[in-house]
Every structure is written in C-alpha cells, then in structure tokens.
Write a structure and sequence with these properties.
662 residues; alpha/beta; Rossmann fold; FAD/NAD(P)-binding domain; 5 domains; five-stranded parallel sheet; 34 strands; 25% strand; globular
C-alpha cells in the first residue's frame, strides 16, 4: 500500500485568496492511500520544506503531492528536497492550483475550490502508480563553443577562458566584434565604442585558451550535453593566416577598388582583398571571391605577386572539422530591419540622405568615410536641419515588428546630442511614439538631449519626400493635435533590431526553439533566463531579444557562469524522465526517429524471440543522454511501443479515471 502525503500551499494570497485551502486539505485526507494532509502558507519556503521533511519521517511517507504553483517553477525545488530524504525524487506530483485554478477563476471561489479538489484528486491517483526513477552519470568534456563573436560572445568566451577552460568562437564574419566597433559613442556615458570593444577583441584573439574561427558556421550537431559532436565549416579566405603578417601591402595594390564597403554601410568603397576595418581581429585580410578578378576571370593576381610572405592562396577551399564540446553558448546577435521594402512612404531607400542609425554611426565615426564630419551622403554638405524618426519597424505589427527594440530611444537621444554637439546651429527634430529610458542614468541622458535643444514631437511620420535639395517630413504632434511639416537636409531612421539571419537554423541544430520573431527562447523567463530547453545550450545577448550593451554583457557573464558551473563537475546527472521502448510492440517503422527534435532515437537491429521463433528486426532505441522527455515520440508511435517514464499512459489514465469515478 502506498503512503501518500499531500501538502496544500496558500502561496500567500495567490492561491489562498481564491481557493479554500483548508477545505482542499481536508478533502485530500479522504482520498485513497493518503495518510497525511496539511496546508502551509508558503510551502516552497525553508519552514514549508522542513514540514515536508518532518512529515515523511513522522508518517513514513513514500509518495508526495504538492498542491501549489506551476511545476515548471518549483518542481525542481521539491525534487531537490526529496533527494535528501528516503522518498525517491520522482515519486512526486505537483497539482497546479495557481496558474490552472486561482489565477483563472478569481471571480468564483466556490468553483475554484471544487476544481482544486479535482486537481489534487488526479495528482493523488497519478502518484499512487508512480515508480522510482534513477539518474545516470554523463561525462563532461570541458571545452565550450561560442557561436557569435560580438560583444556577448567575446565576454562569455573571456569569462570561461579566464576560469581555465578551452573555448572556441565561431563567427560568420571575417572579424570579431559584431556591430559594437561600428558605433561612435555608447550611451549614456558617451565613451568611445571602439575604445571599449577593440581591446576586448585583441584580448580574445591573444588569449591562450581561446581559438577564433572567423568566416565559419556550425553545420551539424550530434551528441548531448557534456559531449556535443559539432561540425564547423570554415569558408575559404584565400589567405594563409599562418604566413600572413597583416602588413596590408596587398590591399594597397588591388585594382578592384569599387566594391561597396559593407563596414561603412556602402558609404565608400573597398578592394577585393581587404581587412574589414583597421582594428579587425584577426588583423589579416580576406579575399572577396565574388569580386576578385583572379578568382572570377583568372586575371590579375597582383596580391600574390606583391605578398612578401607568399600568404595568398587562390586554391584555398572550405574545410570542415568535427570537435567535441561540453557546452554551447548561442550569441548570434542581431541585424537591423530592412526598412526599405516596408516603408515606401519614407522613400523606400531611394533617397540617399534618408539613412538608418547605423549609417549615421559610420558618418559620425572618426574612422568612417567622412572622418567624423556630419555630412549628407548625397553631396557632402553639412546639414542644418535633421529629423530623427524613432520606432521605424518597432511597435508596428502591421508592417514591422510588434515588440519594442529597447535601445532605440536611447540611441535616438544620443544621435540628437551628437548632431547638436558637432553642428551647434543645426535644428534637430525627434518624432517619437513614447520615450522609454529604463537604465542607470538613461532618463537623465534623454533630458540632456532635450535641454541641448532637440525638439521632441510625439507622433508618427506619415511621409517623407524630396523637394529641391531638401526633404519634406510630414508628421503629427499628438500632444497639440497639430499636423507637422518639417524641411530637413537629412533624415535618420532609428530602425528595429531583428534576429540575425540564420539564427533560427542554428538554434534548430541544437534542438532549441525560436519565437515568431526568430528570437531564441529561454527555458524560463524568470528562473532560467540564460538557459534553453536543450541542456548544456545557453543564451547570451541579443540572440534572445533586443537589449543594450550593458544588459548584453551582463547576460553573457551569466551564461558563462552556467558553463563554468557545469565544467566544475566531472560528470552530470541525466534526466530519468525519458522515453522507454517496449520492443515487443515496436514495429521498427521509424516514425519516432524522424519526429524526435533532439535526435535521441535511432533504429537498431535486435535479435528477438517472437512466438517461440528467433527473429532479427529493427526496433527503436532511446539515447538517455539526448532525450529531453518532451513526449513527442509517444503520441506519434502507432503501435504504442513508446512510453514516457513519469508520464506513462497508465498513470495518465489513472488521473482520468479518478476525475470521472471518485
């Protein structure tokens, strides 16, 4: 006979304010095999946990039901508690009286109490048929992979490497740094962005525990937490970095000089063999195969002739290597929304002086094409009137993205401040929906921009068109209710952050989900904000959603601490709540193999005895280290050969029967 203990939590007033918890406790005491029932104000607290521990000893309990909040939040708490008692941690069931009851039935306390009784009744029936489950030990390869070499990826890599562990950074571009080195200043302190970022890039490039692979991407992932087998594709650079000294002679002699410079947002040109920017890491050039005359037409070859070390290799090819990593940090970064196709009313990209914020960063940057002078891209003249339009693509579910990009208000204020500082007689108008400045000294910075002379107009811009040598901006001031028409020499659109191209595909390789906007989803927004549903895979920076530099660096450090914590152990405990195969029922159809999002199931050949006859056939086999217990295979299995330990068909049916019969 089972000996079940039921503990009903008031959760302060979250549950107790709606549900009659003492009545639920008294009802639970009448259920089959329940030998003890009690209610507590806060069962998850230390005193509440101590009462459970004491009740286990006093009443010889072997199964526990906690009627409280979502198991997603505190089920690990109860399991950790039971691991220090004689009760198996998986002889536990959590009845969700908060999210499933009190929060959705606050207007009907009587019905909420009756529903709470039903939820407890079902939990008791399920736990009554539970079986003890046990973990296995998984060895840990203490080497980390960071996908993305921006400020988030670099910070995570440095923190892990400084703890003494090996790290590999995989970066799609030809240099580390991401977008931060493109910026001129950082708000609210107005530090030089490159002065902060480039020393960190150099530190990463020279760290003995860090390997940097640029122009690279992950193409295949196998294995499991602690032992990910990851294939990395390094694209051809056509330059042997072991021989190259980074002298730059090749770039000065290259005749292909009219290629739009992506680093400067197309505001000037570059050569086919080029270094992304002066402080790039690695500080060595690459050849743009699409524009190199030697590679496209078998002509030229000047760079190879002038290279003093013989580093140019036109025969270079893509290479793939497979390495084992214990943990992965996804720091895939962001791009700015392609506003040109979404907003034809703003010129759709046809007007050279209607630019986005990143274009302006390159204009005002001392290392940019105009050496820090604010000039119009069309004619090089200094603007005397500038309009800044915020929320272009953000908070716009009809054309762009429904979410707020968080940093736009601040870099809009920064741009206004910079324009007024560089051109004191320039008039600056800022069109905004709302001003959001949640950060240390952020609101003071915004107020300073207004005090400097920036004119803030609350309203959207409806149209921008060219008239003579200036642009007419039509908008509205919703505070006064008046239509606004501004003549501007230049317009800056503060555009939305969007997920980096390929981020979703990369996440899928690791069995990690993304939301409708392609941001990578965390395991829990409050309790596990840097973890993902795939154990051993973590998040850092804007890969998760829009954020500014301080938040990005903080999250990168948090992700690194998770990796370091994992690497502090020689082995990890596996999840025992995994799929289990009844090979007698398995037909070997392979449906489960294809549906498993974690690649945890494979078909293997087994020698079986069926009807006293020896047969050999394929059956499904579950890798316990890879299986995350999602249950997708169990519902897809036509012969019913797969069951999820801890959530078996039998235990679920016991819940249903209890609800219908008792």
């Amino acid at each position: 006979m089972s000996r079940i203990g039921v503990f009903v939590c008031h959760c302060g007033s979250n549950i107790g304010g709606v549900v009659d918890c003492p009545a639920v406790r008294d009802y639970a005491a009448t259920l089959p095999n329940v030998v003890h029932a009690e209610d507590n104000k806060y069962t998850c607290s230390d005193p509440g946990q101590a009462k459970i521990r004491q009740a286990i000893e006093d009443y010889d309990l072997d199964r526990i039901v906690v009627a409280a909040c979502s198991p997603r939040m505190h089920e690990p708490t109860w399991r950790a508690l039971l691991s220090h008692t004689k009760v198996n941690p998986y002889m536990l069931e959590v009845a969700n009286l908060r999210e499933h009851d009190s929060w959705v039935h606050a207007d009907n306390k009587e019905a909420a109490t009756e529903k709470a009784k039903d939820l407890v009744k079902m939990a008791v029936a399920k736990v009554d048929h539970a079986i003890p489950l046990y973990t296995q030990q998984i060895p840990v390869n203490k080497k980390a992979l960071i996908i993305g070499g921006g400020i988030a990826g670099m910070q995570a890599a440095l923190d892990i490497a400084d703890a003494g562990y090996k790290v590999t950074i995989v970066e799609r571009k030809a240099t580390l740094g991401g977008k931060m080195p493109m910026l001129d200043k950082t708000f609210p302190t107005m530090d030089c962005s490159a002065c902060i970022c480039t020393p960190k890039m150099s530190e990463v490039g020279n760290h003995p525990n860090i390997t940097v692979k640029t122009l690279s991407e992950v193409t295949k992932v196998e294995g499991y937490v602690g032992n990910f087998e990851i294939t990395i594709k390094e694209h051809a650079k056509y330059v042997d970095y072991d021989k190259c000294t980074g002298c730059g002679l090749c770039t000065t002699k290259c005749p292909s000089k009219k290629i739009p410079n992506e680093w400067n947002q197309g505001l000037d040109n570059r050569t086919a063999i080029h270094k992304v920017f002066e402080q790039a890491v690695p500080s060595k050039p690459v050849i743009d195969a699409d524009h190199c005359l030697k590679l496209t037409r078998d002509k030229c070859g000047v760079c190879a002739k002038v290279c003093p070390t013989g580093a140019i290799n036109y025969e270079d090819v893509d290479r793939e290597t497979t390495e084992t990593f214990g943990a992965v940090v996804l720091a895939t970064g962001y791009e700015l929304i392609k506003w040109e196709d979404l907003y034809p009313e703003y010129g759709g990209g046809a007007y050279p002086d209607v630019i986005d914020g990143l274009h302006f960063e390159r204009i005002i940057n001392a290392s940019g094409p105009s050496e820090g002078r604010i000039v119009r891209p069309s004619d090089g003249k200094e603007p005397k009137s500038v309009v800044i339009v915020k929320c272009v693509g953000s908070r716009d579910p009809n054309k762009g993205k429904a979410y707020c990009s968080r940093a736009c208000c601040m870099y809009g204020a920064k741009h206004a401040h910079q324009i007024i500082e560089h051109i004191p007689d320039c008039k600056v108008y800022v069109f905004y929906m709302d001003v959001r400045t949640p950060g240390k000294n952020y609101d003071e910075f915004y107020m300073q921009a207004k005090n400097d002379g920036a004119c803030y107009l609350r309203g959207r811009v409806s149209k921008i068109y060219k008239e003579g040598d200036h642009y007419v901006v039509w908008g509205a001031d919703t505070i006064s209710g008046a239509k606004v028409e501004v003549n501007a020499d230049m317009v800056i659109l503060e555009t939305a952050m969007v997920a980096a191209p390929g981020a979703t595909e990369t996440a899928m390789l690791f069995g990690v989900q993304t939301d409708k906007d392609d941001w990578i989803i965390e395991a829990h927004p409050k309790l596990r904000p840097v973890e993902t549903a795939s154990r051993g895979v973590y998040l850092a920076g804007v890969a998760q959603g829009p954020k500014d530099i301080p938040d990005t660096v903080a999250q990168a450090g948090a992700a690194a601490s998770k990796v370091i914590g994992m690497f502090s152990h020689d082995s990890l405990e596996s999840n025992p709540q995994i799929s289990n195969v009844d090979i007698a029922k398995c037909s070997g159809c392979g449906t489960c193999v294809h549906i498993c999002p974690y690649g945890a199931i494979s078909l293997v050949e087994k020698h079986l005895r069926e009807n006293s006859v020896k047969v050999t056939r394929d059956v499904a086999q579950v890798n316990p280290a890879l299986c995350q217990g999602c249950g997708a295979c169990t519902v897809a299995c036509k012969p019913g050969a797969l069951d999820l330990l801890g959530y078996s068909d039998k235990s679920i049916m016991e819940e249903v029967d209890a609800l219908c019969q008792w």
